[in-house]
Amino acid sequence: MPNTKYDQQMEFFVDMQRCIGCHACEMACAECETNGQESMIHIHYVDRAVTTQTTVQVCMHCEDPACANVCPADAISKDDFGVVHTANTARCIGCSNCVLACPFGVPQKNEAAELMMKCNMCYDRTSAGKKPMCATVCPTQALFYGTREEIQKMRPNSTPVNKFFFGMQEVNTKVNIMMPKGSTHLKVH
Amino acid sequence: MYRLIKTLNRTALIKAIIAALAVIIIVFIGSRNLQHFDAALIAYLFGTVFAVFGVAYRYSVWVQRPPTRLYWRRSWQFLLSKDFAQYAFHSTKLFFRNIMLQRHIYPRGRMRWWGHFMLATGCLIAFAVTIPLTFGWVHFTLEAGSDTTYTANFFGFPVSQFELGSPIAFATFHALVWCSVLVTIGAVIMLKRRLTHGGMIATQTFEGDWLPLILLIAISITGLGISYDYTFLQGRTHQFMSVTHAITVILFLIWMPFGKFFHIFQRLAQVGANIYKVEGTRRGLAKCPHTQQDFASQLHVNDLKDVTKDLGFDFTLEDGRSHLDYSPEGKRSALAKAHFQARKDAGHFFG
User: Fold this and answer.
1) How many CA atoms lie within 13 A of A152 on its CB side?
2) Any stretches that span the bilayer, and where are they (chain B) (predicted)?
3) Which residue in A112, B298, B326, B345 is a FRET match for B204, CA 20 to 30 A apart?
4) Closest approach of chain A CAs to the CA of B8, in angstroms?
5) Residues 181-200 of B with CB under 8 A from A
6) Which fold does the domain A11-187 belong to in CATH?
7) Pick from B70, B336, B328, B68: which is nearest to A100 by CA?
8) Cβ B311–A70 below 8 Å, yes or no?
9) Phi/psi of residue B125, each to 5°?
């Protein structure tokens, strides 16, 4: 039965500018047992023709997840800790609604299995009070899992932000992105 | 009580009542005005009528959700189009592949597929046997002038004959025994996964994942108990065996609309989602403004814009385009570029 040692003081902080594209998180992600040994993290060049910048994307665990809302099979759920879980395998019909509706481009569809899969913050580990696999191996701490006090001490000139604007839509998330100090939100478009 | 009824979904309630009444009517028709109805099975009939009511109610509520309604309408629209023959063939193929054989589970794990296939096949055959018996659609009679020839009647019409003691008779009368064996083996395989798989241990719940398997095993074991009783105990424990079996089966029927078993009915939507994908691809693909590559059908992207608006989301951009016009990779890149710009504007890329 689910472990209830989930530590709500711990939060996830992402800083894409620190990503060096080493793929260590990708390898570690595949160790997560809730993914069935499939890596769910996204790392890719942002715009290879003009820059070597890479970006890393984990599920942002939205407060009102678009993926769960557009799921025709009620396969995606958010738990009491705010973790948005990967598709319930019994229900998912592999329609890809969630893949296309997620504003962060997170869910993936396993075509052969006709199943959507996504990061669920290494629930096998976080529900037991441990850190997600990706955050434990990231050498530049582009991915960091810890308390707000810890991140403030490490990044005194940054502010964690969890409010995003995609055009008219405001999206609030459980996962934070490290922004310049004093920022309140990130406007994507 | 009145307040409770007022909270019910009226459309779903009407459809559920119609479905339940339809079952009662076909019981009367199939059993020739209850002539062939087996009164010993009355409790199972009540359980089935309730299950039909509950499943129809939940299904109707489910289909009213904007994304589900979209797939429901689109599936029927494409199936009943000028390409009916092609989509009917495609749907039939998918029905056997994904519903009867559950082949989509195989890539998720070979033993997982074996477990689910045995469990599901046992259940489906058991439904096919017990529902016509419970409804009085099927009954057996002795052929006139013979005390060894059995006739199987369907809706009161004779459909086949077999000799008592023959292999066909043995296989027919023990059909539910074979189902019980299949279900038990399948459920044990699935239970073993739930005991040993770290990911499942972290996310499973008792009522959502364990109880359905325990209930299926209980139904199978108590069902086997009835056969064991009349084969080896001369029926001495019949009352106990039949009552315990009835309790487990009726619990299953009553719980079917509310718990995990509802996915049996939801799974059919997978066929509709496949047809939608085929038709969408045929109508043209959407190109991501960032990657400049096709990533989904334009139909799907456009439909999702409407569905998200129905659900209270508005991803419309200032220039009139939509964030949903971007592929998943394009969306991730847009976020990274916005983050880069914010850092750049602040004068420090790190901090």
Assistant:
1) 5
2) 12-29, 41-59, 113-138, 168-189, 210-228, 240-258
3) A112
4) 19
5) 197-199
6) Alpha-Beta Plaits (3.30.70)
7) B328
8) yes
9) -65, -40
Interior angle at CA B51, CA B45 and CA B52, nearest 5: 90
Q: What is the dihedral of CA B212, B215, B219, B222, to 10 degrees?
A: 160
**Separation of alpha carbons B113 and B97, rounded Å:** 13
Backbone angles phi, psi at B186, to 5 degrees: -60, -45
Q: Are B210 and B132 in contact (CB under 8 A)?
A: no
Q: How far apart are CA A147 and CA A145, in angstroms?
A: 7
What's at A122, amino acid-wise?
Answer: C
Cβ contact B67–A91 (<8 Å):
no
Helix residue spans in chain A (DSSP H): 24-29, 66-70, 97-101, 123-126, 133-137, 148-154
Enter the DSSP assignment of B205: -
- Dist. CA B259–CA B219, nearest whole Å: 16
ipTM of the complex model? 0.95
β-bridge mates for residue A170, sequence order: A165
How far is the CA of B68 from the CAs of A19, A40, A69, in angstroms? 38, 26, 11
Instruction: Name, in order, each residue with C-beta under 8 angstroms of B207's C-beta and a sequence gap of 6 or more.
Output: B259
Lowest mean pLDDT segment, chosen from A18-27, A128-137, B136-145, B189-198: B136-145
Gap between the Cα atoms of A176 and B9, Å rounded? 39
Residue A71: strand, helix, or coil: coil
In a domain, residue B120? The reply is no
Helix axes B84-94, B269-283, angle to 10 degrees: 140
Residue B13 lies in a domain: no
Chain A residues with CB-CB distance to B70 below 8 A: 72
Counted domains in chain B: 1
Residue B141 CA neighbour count, 13 Å, CB half: 13
How many other CB atoms are found less than 10 A from the CB of residue B25? 10
Q: Is residue B117 part of a domain?
A: no
> Which residues of B fall within a CB distance of 8 Å from A183?
342, 346
In Å, how far from its chain's centre is CA B87? 21
Cβ atoms within 10 Å, residue B142: 12
The residue range of the domain holding B313 is: 286-346
Residue B321 lies in a domain: yes
**Beta-carbon pairs below 8 A across chains A and B:** 210
Helices (H) and strands (E) in chain A, counts: 6, 9
Tokens 């559950």 locate to B102
Per-residue model confidence as pLDDT tens for chain B (351 residues): 777 778 899 999 999 999 999 999 999 999 999 999 999 999 999 999 999 999 999 999 999 999 999 999 999 999 999 999 999 999 999 999 999 999 999 998 999 999 999 999 999 999 999 999 999 999 999 988 888 899 999 998 999 999 998 999 999 899 999 999 999 999 999 999 999 998 899 999 999 999 999 999 999 999 999 999 999 999 999 999 999 999 999 999 999 998 899 999 999 999 999 999 999 999 999 999 999 999 999 999 999 999 999 999 999 999 999 999 999 999 999 999 999 999 999 998 887
Cα separation, A40 vs B174, whole angstroms: 47
